[in-house]
Amino acid sequence: MLKEILVIDDNPDIRLLVSNILKEKQFTVRAAANYDQAVFEINKKIPDLAIVDIKLDKPDKDGIDLLKLIIKKNKLTPVIMISGHATVKIALEAIRLGAYEFIEKPFTKEKILNYVNRALESTELKKEKDLIENKLFHSFDLIGESPDILKVKKIIEKLSTSESRVLISGPTGSGKELVARKIHKISQRSKNPFVIINAALLKEKKYERELFGEEFEDGSISFGALERANTGTLLIDEVSEIPYETQANVLRVLIDQKFKRLNSSKYINVNIRLISSTSRDLKELVMQKKFREDLFHRLNVMPIELSPLSSRTEDIPLLINYFIERLSEINGVQKPIIDLNNDNFYTYNWPGNVRELRNLIERITILSANETKENINKIIEDILNPSHYSENSKKSLEKSFTSPLKEAREHFEKEYLITQLKKNHGNVSKTADFIGMERSALHRKLKSLGIKGIN
Questions:
Q1: What's the confidence (pLDDT) of residue 129?
Q2: Which residue, among 351, 361, 339, has the nearest Cα to 387 in the 3D structure?
Q3: SS3 string of 194-222?
Q4: How far apart are CA 51 and CA 116, in angstroms?
Q5: Fewer C-beta within 10 Å: the chain N or C terminus?
Q6: Quick check: 390 pLDDT over 50?
Q7: pLDDT of residue 392 exceeding 80
């Protein structure tokens, strides 16, 4: 599909020159000779890319105003600013507001085409990234009816009118980023940026550059996460991994709401909502002097704890049904028939938590085309093989083989009844019916084996 480019310049020679260069490369070109024409063309239809002169015919309106209008209508539309007499300050302002690039006049044919092609390629990559993120997160809901998940949902709902900082803790794959996105989505900042910085993936020397940005000798700027998230929400994933020295600078930003880019003496004011997440115990790290106590208290205004999937197995069938629906739709495949009573789902320890379950269901939706329920169960069993079972289950099994018959029988009964209770969401009556035992007798058996209520 041909890309459409809008050229805005009050100089007819420049306007014609740029238009002809683009038409030679088979681009569709529209042109505007002044500010009002430009506004008309932008409102009529947003182009795939705009080339905008900074100085136009109006003394009180210029290309910067047009840049703001385009970004407001579609933040993914790349805008290349051009000028023959703009100051460095104006150029930096244009980049800060979202312009893809700033080019000084005069410019060569090769230079303008190079920037146009790079800008369009960059936009396609952003669109693909947004599409992937939309599939992974925006189309997914926080699924579960266990007490732990209901509590989390209630907290998220209450946060809709709050600007409080949030600290989300939980094991890897439990849904921390999903919760952060849900908080942003229902907040008053939902139309503003949601920026993620993963502290666990950064090299030690890059933390401050990624957070605060950097200014270079040639005047170019690398914008940091704080600046990109301005007016929106910043998620610092695995906040525990930020070096101790850098933590002091993060604390200062939270107190002063301003910071300096690296190699700059100018303060930049920011207005962000900070959400942090961690899979480690920050309180323990504070005691070990590996995390600043003052920063911990600043981050931990509203704590949210996500429990591991193995401790809320009553949510497993709900999650399986949900992922079957969503992943079959996303991948364009037939929905597999999965036996929700498959013991493997409830005896497996799920070290990767909900993410691992989601990946499993996606794998099954791809592998199980035209397969019977029995074959699908075999696929599940092969994936969730006994070598992945929990350490507790392994130890219990080993103990059974080294114990007298009576003790071994008790070990087996305990493991068996716990599994059946989890499958029936802790419902003793349903469990009793399934295993063919009187409800009162099952109660006595559970008490004798020391099995307490399973929710």
A1: 62
A2: 351
A3: EEEEEHHHCCHHHHHHHHHCEECCCCCEE
A4: 9
A5: N
A6: no
A7: no
| Domain range 313-386, CATH class | mainly alpha
Only one residue has tokens 């550059």, namely: 209
Q: Which residue has the higher pLDDT, 401 or 418?
A: 418
Domain 391-448 in this protein, CATH class? mainly alpha
**Per-residue burial over 307-322, b = 16 or more CB atoms within 10 Å of its CB, e = otherwise:** bbbbebbbbbbbbbeb
Q: Which residues contact 305 (CB under 8 A, 6 or more apart)?
A: 148, 152, 168, 169, 170
Pick the CATH number of 139-307 from 1.10.132.80, 3.40.50.300, 3.40.50.12710, 3.40.50.2000: 3.40.50.300
Task: Please name every residue paired with 260 in a beta bridge, in sequence order, or none if there are none.
Answer: 267
Q: Which two tokens stand for residue 32?
A: 């505007």
What pTM does this model have? 0.61
pLDDT in tens, 127-158: 766 655 555 544 578 999 999 999 999 999 99
DSSP 51: E
- For the chain, report the end-to-end CA distance as a whole number of angstroms: 55
Q: Which two tokens stand for residue 398?
A: 């080993």
pLDDT at 137: 46
